[in-house]
Design brief:
The complex is a heterodimer of chains A (272) and B (288). Chain A is mainly α and 272 residues long. Chain A has 12 helices and no strands. The longest helix of chain A has 36 residues. The relative contact order of chain A is 0.15. Chain B is mainly alpha-helical and 288 residues long. Chain B is globular and about 65 Å long. In chain B, 75% of the residues lie in helices and 1% in strands. In chain B, helix 1 packs across helix 12, helix 3 runs parallel beside helix 7 and helix 3 packs across helix 9. Chain B has a two-stranded antiparallel sheet with strand order 1-2. The chains are: A mainly alpha (272), B mainly alpha (288).
């Protein structure tokens, strides 16, 4: 029964969305190249939303990656006993915090900044990026920790036994061996960031912002476009754009997901 | 590159501390903004059934109850289905089919929430509207059904990993006792894997409580007590999104932060319970 429902859902989207797939879906009436480079504004296409999602996801991943990697390595290599349990609990809590609460956190930050030392602060791309980074941080931490702990102990001890320092051991022994696992986790985290709507809903997404102009400006995003069109579509062609956007987003997250799975499966074959 | 031992240690400690600080910061901001309501006498008003912002009534009780009803309904949809899928994948179904179903469930966890909501808004909602008179289609039932499918992969995947772990230890014993595959699954392996299955159900519950988009798109968002499955409800999460998006006055904001705190505490409660269960029963499953 589950199978039927899922296949039905996929088929429905493919059927509805496939009909409108084409340059017109992305760019509306504007010429494609001019629209991509931002010379011509796009009114009835989803290209600005795609660009917004892309920038947002890159920003979030760039912010979350260093801390996620560091924390994962800390948990796998350095931490022991109670400290490890506590840190682990914190990361779990971060992972299970609902995304709307994360959005509320971003909103609260803006209120706080307005009251204290930045009265002109407003919701923007940077804020959404920071909140999304916090949202995907636990995924990266877990992926790093699992990938490092999956390396056989003998392999992990080679570095120290040869007299490498901790840093040399991490850079030359641990990271190269765990890189695939970490990469898989990062791709999954990116997919998570791309699909999330609740966070950006509260932190500065706007329906008709056009291409993002800077990290302090408003932006559009693909999931929000879908949500917005479902609630407030005015005619049949807008509804079709909505189905097209669904198909694009689904294709994006599905391809990220499948590639992450593929990478992880390769690892399972490596160590077993 | 030659970094000293202490420096590289510091680097990792910093990353870990920043990550932990994120949790603290989220918590601190929520409490900071909700404190005026919680500390003053206003919380009584907050726990009332009245949500009339223009007459200064900010009761969020309908939303709390709405969240509870919706979550329970979603669990009622998801748990039996998940149990069936788990049984099918762990031995009742033929090998290739089981593998295919498992891959499909994995893939389901990658489908964006907003896509579920969008498709349901144009298929399930009109269906309910035309088949049950007196309903707009945007109701508890629609949201509950879809939310059930949304949390299904969470429950199935965590539950399956728990089952597989127990299976490895016990399947040989079961065969030696002459139990068939079905008997051993139902009488030995399911009962033995209960801590892991409980964790799976709890995490699915947390996912259902915290989900925003399904409720926002399908549940109708009227702040009232539902009288039947076909009534419109508003959940805590949808409430936060709606109030912040419509830019109300500051008093309404505070009730939103109280709602945020509540959601955070629910997540924390689930999290700590799962942690305790796993600690007590020997770390049966450690993903999360």
């Amino acid at each position: 029964m589950t199978t039927t429902v899922v296949c039905g859902l996929l088929g429905f989207i493919a059927w509805q969305g496939g009909a409108v797939l084409g340059p017109a879906l992305f760019f509306g009436d504007a010429p494609a190249w001019a629209a991509i480079s931002g010379q011509v504004p796009v009114w009835d296409g989803i290209w600005p939303a795609c660009a917004g999602t892309l920038v947002l996801v890159l920003l979030a991943a760039a912010l979350a990656l260093p801390f996620g990697l560091g924390c994962g390595l800390y948990l796998a290599v350095l931490a022991k006993g109670r400290k490890k349990a506590f840190c682990s609990l914190c990361i779990n809590q971060l992972a299970s915090t609902p995304s709307i609460v994360m959005g509320l956190f971003g909103f609260a930050m803006i209120l706080f900044l307005r009251r204290t030392f930045l009265p002109g602060a407003n919701t923007c791309l940077l804020l959404a990026g920071v909140c999304l980074a916090v949202l995907i941080l636990p995924y990266i931490v877990r992926a790093t920790q699992n990938a490092v702990e999956a390396i056989p102990l003998t392999q992990r001890l080679i570095g120290p036994s040869l007299g490498l320092t901790l840093w040399q051991n991490i850079v030359h022994c641990i990271l190269p061996q765990a890189s695939r696992g970490i990469l898989g986790g990062v791709i999954l985290a990116v997919g998570r960031a791309a699909e999330d709507t609740a966070v950006i809903l509260l932190t500065g997404v706007v329906a008709n912002a056009g291409l993002p102009r800077g990290v302090l400006g408003p932006f559009e995003a693909l999931p929000f476009t879908i949500y917005y069109l479902a609630a407030e579509y005015r005619n049949q062609s807008e509804l079709e754009i909505g189905f097209g956007a669904c198909l694009v987003l689904l294709a994006l997250t599905a391809s990220l997901f499948v590639s992450a799975r593929w990478i992880q499966r390769k690892i399972e074959n490596t160590w077993s | 590159m030659h970094f000293s031992e202490t420096f590289s240690r510091m680097l990792l400690y910093t990353a870990a501390i920043v990550s932990m600080a994120c949790v603290m910061a989220v918590f601190a901001f929520l409490v900071y903004f909700a404190w005026p309501v919680l500390a003053g006498g206003e919380w009584k008003d907050l726990l009332s059934l009245n949500w009339r912002p223009f007459q200064a009534h900010y009761g969020i009780l309908p939303m709390i109850l709405g969240s509870m009803y919706l979550t329970v309904l979603a669990m009622l949809v998801a748990c039996p289905l998940a149990a069936g899928v788990c049984l099918f994948c762990s031995g009742l179904g033929p090998g290739p089919a089981a593998g295919a179903v498992k891959a499909l469930v994995r893939f389901m966890s990658g489908i964006p929430t907003v896509v579920y909501g969008f498709v349901a808004a144009f298929t399930l909602v009109p269906f309910l509207r035309s088949h049950f008179s007196g309903s707009t289609g945007y109701c508890l039932l629609a949201a509950g059904l879809i939310l059930g499918f949304l949390i299904l992969p969470t429950i199935v995947l965590i539950g399956l990993s728990a089952l597989e772990r127990v299976d490895q230890e016990l399947s040989l014993t079961c065969s030696a006792l002459g139990l068939s595959r079905v008997q051993s699954l139902i009488h030995v392996i399911f009962p033995a894997a209960w801590p892991g299955l409980l964790a799976a159900v709890l995490l699915g519950f947390a996912r259902a409580v915290g989900d925003t988009l399904i409720a926002l798109m399908l549940a109708g968002n009227a702040p009232q007590l539902p009288g039947s499955l076909f009534d419109s409800i508003r959940t805590l999460t949808a409430h936060i999104a709606l109030v912040v998006a419509t830019d109300s006055q500051s008093q309404a904001y505070r009730s939103v932060f109280a709602a945020g705190c509540l959601l955070f505490f629910i997540a924390a409660a689930v999290n700590i319970t799962v942690f305790r269960v796993r600690q007590k029963f020997g770390g049966l499953s450690r993903d999360g």
